[in-house]
Amino acid sequence: MPDTTVTTPPAGPGVARTGDAVEASRHRPRLGRVLLYAGVVAGAFMMLFPFLWTVVTSITTRGNLSGGPTLVPEEPTLDAYRTLFDALPMWRIVANSFGIAIASTFFQLLTGSMAAYGFARLRFRGKNVIFGLYLATLMVPLQVLVVPLFIQMTRFNLNDTYFALLAPSIASAFGIFLLKQAMESVPRELDEAATIDGASHLRIYATIILPLVRPALATLTVFAFMASWNSFIWPLVVIRSPELMTLPLGLSTLQGQFTTDWNVVMAGSVVSILPIAIVYLFAQRHVIAGMAHTGLK
Amino acid sequence: MTPRAGEPQLAPSGTIRPEGKGRPGWHRRASSRSRHVGWILFFLLPSGIPLLLFTFLPMVSSAWVSLHEWNLISPMKWVGLDNYAHLLTDPGTRRVFANTIFYIVGYFPLVYIGGLGLAIVLNRKLAGRSFFRAAYFLPVVTSWVVVALVWQWLLNPSNGLINQILGFFNLYEPGWWTDPAWAMPSVILASAWKDLGFVMVILLAGLQTIPHELYEAARIDGASGWKVFRHVTLPLLSPATFFVVVISLINGFQVFDQVYVMTGGGPAGASQVVVGEIYELTFRYGRAGEASALSWLLFLVILAVTVIQIRGQRRWVHYA
User: What is the pLDDT, as a whole number, of residue A24?
Assistant: First the structure.
């Protein structure tokens, strides 16, 4: 899992990595290869530089900002972070983001895998119609739902609560679809044998099917976590109190408060990038594989 | 007896018919059937109830609200299809759709060509390949709000990095998100930067499914470089390309976060998109009925565009 994420300096092109590359490098002229390499490095620089710039800006003093910060700040300071943590309950906001993301991922895995088992293994009349209705919810964009959901939450007096934040992501038709497809490919003989041995549905679901669809569960974990971590429009609509905000929302409020204090806004950005970047570095392969996997379904 | 025994469909495979299932008494059948129903409810309700409450119900009520005039506070007033009629004739609607399409048209070629180039390069043997893949993918996991804020700072007209560089070379320094003409290009730039890695990964996965033999065969036939790309890579990559097109268009029509943060739809509405308009109509102007109608119009447009693409894929998508 650690792979080569952290340090693989662009050494000479001699040490090629084993892999599934299509073309061998023998016939390639050397100059072309160097140019190619330069291009890739320049591209990676363009992708990473904004992150570096964010960090640099966040430790620059406000005064030095107006002339445009330099790459190595003259007097690095954590003032911006102090201002940030005074202005917003940042620890709480980070905890909220993690809490909501973990809870919604957990619920989606649970409700999704149960429904997927129901659709893949139980037989009942109207199953296809019900599954079709589930799928139909996939096609309706969140934007269509935001206004009526907000109204519904207001009616039940649930606005500005954790419950409201979490509710729309307890179950996802996307997850059910993904897991059902995976379960359909598990040979039926396995659970039929277990049935003869007297195993209940719950037992078959938990001890036979779930372990066999682990890759799909991993993919759903990645998607659900990222969707929740990054979701913006729904928290924006339903949350008012700073103590209940998630990172994207908290961050967007900074913009209004500190219009010209870019160091504070960038400090907030650093705080919200850091946790997900660490998670990503460890789960990098699963994230990328998960994306690619569903992409081609 | 197991609950499963009550399931009549087990029978067709004959051999595995559980004992005692042969001639069940009426009493026993009834109880095992209800137990089967119990299992169905057990597995489906945990997802069924939330989906019903938080997706179906809002869907239905949104359609209902779209037929009313309503400011979220006073009682709803039935207006039939007036909201739709008004939207269809309102130049404001045309403008937000035009802005959204402008966004898609600017954004898609950037991410597709960039992503394809990267995928091809990173599909070769290259030292540090996984480092590069990870680096290009990092923006994908970063939240939109962060990306928008960082780019707002990079594109800051007075002291942002990009204009400092342009100024250094004595080039024209655009007003970026403060200038109506440059507001949307700013959003496009940030969006392309964020999504490049995603497109790259999808296309990379597509490239890896192309059998090696095809390249060899092409080379034996004397094809090289561009020809191989044009006649082997591109056609065999078309399923992945199709996926990227469909997803990009769906996401493109729903663009909101980055616009809201970077430009707020401004200056003077120059970069307002459809979802931004839905948000403003509801929460700023208290026109929930019109907003709901607009969201259904958006849904219909997305649906139509997606259906057209699925219909049209026969012409250019080659499934192996």
Answer: 45
Q: Look at residue B84 in the predicted model and tell me its pLDDT.
A: 95
DSSP secondary structure letter of residue B89: H
Architecture of the structural domain at B83-316: Orthogonal Bundle (1.10)
User: Inter-chain contact B292–A293, Cβ cutoff 8 Å?
Assistant: no
For an interface test with A, the pick among B47, B74, B275, B310 (most A C-beta atoms closer than 10 Å) comes out as: B47
Q: pLDDT at position B13, please? A: 41
Find which of A127, A146, A158, A281 to mutate to test the B interface (most B CBs within 10 Å of its CB). A146
pLDDT at B29 (0 to 100): 62
Per-residue model confidence as pLDDT tens digits over B77-106: 999 899 999 999 999 999 999 999 999 999
Long-range contacts of B157-163 (CB under 8 A, 24+ apart): B159/A65, B159/A66, B159/A67, B159/A68, B160/A68, B161/A53, B161/A68
CATH of residue A171: 1.10.3720.10
Domain spans, chain B:
3-65, 83-316
> How far is the CA of B263 from the CAs of A7, A252, B182, B257, B271, in angstroms?
37, 12, 10, 10, 7
| Structural domain span for residue A120 | 88-257
Count Cβ atoms below 10 Å from residue A67 Cβ, excluding itself: 9
Task: Name the region of B287 (left: φ>0; alpha: ψ -120 to 50; beta: rest).
Answer: beta
Residue B112 has pLDDT above 90, yes or no: yes
Q: Are A17 and B126 in contact (CB under 8 A)?
A: yes
Mean pLDDT in residue range B51-66: 90
